[in-house]
Amino acid sequence: MGVSSNFDFLTAQDERLARLGALAERYFFDDAPSALIKLRQLAEFLAKEVAARHGLLPSNNVTFDEVLRTLRLHAILPREIADLLFNLKRLGNEAVHEDVGTAANALFALKIARSAAVWFHQSYGGKPNFKAGPFIPPRPPVDATAALAAELEELRKQVHASSDEAAKALLAVRDADEARLKALSEVEAHKQDKEFWEAYAAETEAGLRKTDAALKAAQAAAKAAPPQQLDLLAQLANRQAQQVEFDEATTRLLIDEQLRAAGWTVDTPTLRYAAGTRPQPGQKIAIAEWPTDSGPVDYALFIDGHCVGVIEAKRGIADAPGRLGQAKRYARDVRLAAGETMPGSPWMQGLDRFRVPFLFVTNGRPYVKQFETKSGIWFWDARPTGGNPRALPEWFSPQDLSERLDQTENFDALAERELGVTGFRKRPVAHEIGITIHVEPNEAPIAEVVTEKHEQPIQILVGAIFLVAPGSQRQEFASPARPNIGQVLGHTLNHLGDDEDIAQMPAILQLLLDFPFL
């Protein structure tokens, strides 16, 4: 019995990584939690390998969390990839500690793990032009739900419709192997399959225990390498992250995760209009595929039974603000019962009558300032005082939208106000905050931020954006991945303090962006 998987290309980097992917695909058939655990292992090894390649892995015994934190603070790991690894870590942790995880979870994890692995191979394997081809669906579980069976069948169709002969051959091999097992008696088939994969898993685990030497060697090589070489490596990794692609189903699940993190109840496979899901008092819910006269909208947002927003969410959106027209059609044509409309509906904009106030467009990608129209979330308030469309770095929480509904001013005219992470708040004026940038040769700058409520300054690693030696002229430093300052500080502040700290982030960011050295 041979082993071929969607992760075979990783063999060129490290056979152990390819084996973890192959094991996860096998466990998908009858042991989803084990599949999730193997994919968490794969994600952790990828993160440690990246850290070692940049000389940032002090010990092989550091935790997955510590590695991700280090990579984030040094602006090495692109946000797109960090989000994938975080999802794999979360699902794997739940499988380890609670023995939970469905086949649908495992399929989602397999697809995003493969995307992260492709990025790693392109960025750190010297293969920037590598094309992975379509995802080959694993052997379907015997108890697959109708939705999962449909998704697996759609993946098969994508393989057959592609021009990738290698992918078609791998799918044919899998079909032949499944047919061979079906031809055997159930007992014999189970015995052969079990013996083979138990031996394969034991060999893989034995190999993983030998990774320390490889990681130490990569760490030592990075420490000896010129800084410019590491900077170029990080820049390549950042460019490749912009090319990561997902199918429609995976994109929707990633958006589910983003909305869930913002406080919405959401689950596209189950919380759908067609499945009978309806808004209820007390709920803050995103219902998928809500009907409109222009076709179903991807999500309708409800707070306490009232529709407050619609979301146009598509993988292929390259120009997010350009799709606001579709979101406007949904907001005009959405079908709502009398009790599901907001007070004040409809809102007039010229000849248009909008039944919901808030419109969103997203392609599921994290917000990156340099690619503002191609990433993040685009938002428009359809009320006459709502202002112009703009990009958001993250989703509004239900509280954010509730507070915004209470605002009646013209938002474009409010120069003294800014949107905080947890709501619409007064923006602190510049003299309330003091910022000092500390720089040392060959070190990333540190921002010391002092607010009225802090006697001791908050120290924030800004990221190596510009290197300025004391007393010298400003000189550009080729930074790892040219990080978005807001992204770096946003993560940092979330870990530093309470809501009052975070609420001051917009003013802090603006001062940093305006700081002469940055």
UniProtKB/TrEMBL annotation:
Report which residue ranges the record marks as coiled coil. 145-172
UniProt cross-references to Gene3D superfamilies, sorted A to Z: 3.90.1570.30
Its keywords, alphabetically, are: Coiled coil
Output the superkingdom of the source species: Bacteria
Q: Specify whether Coiled coil is a keyword of the entry.
A: yes
Q: Name one Pfam family in it.
A: DUF4145
Identification of the protein by name? DUF4145 domain-containing protein
Origin organism of this chain?
Answer: Bradyrhizobium japonicum
